[in-house]
Amino acid sequence: MGKAEERALALAARRGLSPAARQAASEAICRRLLTMPELGEAGLILSYLAAWDEADLAPLHRALRAQGKLLAFPVSGPAGRMEAWIPTGPEQLRRGAFGLREPDPALARPARPEELDLVLVPCVAFDAGLRRLGHGAGYYDRYLPRCREIPLLVPAFEVQRLPRVTAEAHDRTVDAVITERGIYRKKN
What we know:
Number of domains: 1
Number of helices: 5
Order of helices and strands: HHHEHEEEEEEEEHEEE
Strand content: 15-25%
CATH topology: Rossmann fold
CATH superfamily: NagB/RpiA/CoA transferase-like
CATH class: Alpha Beta
Shape: globular
Distance between the termini: 29 Å
CATH architecture: 3-Layer(aba) Sandwich
């Protein structure tokens, strides 16, 4: 099975979740994330704003802000480039590329990759080897190598887990995948 088939399979599974199941699973994922020491130690976190039927991290974002954490979110640029921006408030968003919510750079400040302490990376699919499959545009594939060695955590629904995700040389494994059922970590 290639990436296109893997993507289709995982997206169908994710779309098959009812709104109530998606909300309950999203809340469970957020609770699990809040128990992770990586988040407790991070001051500046690059996260994402859920689109379509992705795990909704809004409860996590509220809890992290209450703890005094800074949150940055991706802004998509030309030629598949992505940058992180810290909005001055949750209402300082606009619709960007692909209709996704993102910080309005006129009302936000940039966060350089080397400033980040942790990245929450969205995915379409993942496997037990901590390989992730995105939507295929390559924004994170180009951005993550610019980050210093920091934790990469993937919030995902258990239904997005595949037996194996096709990986290429440039694909980076992540440090953990957090689902409503558990936390998958690299084995030492």
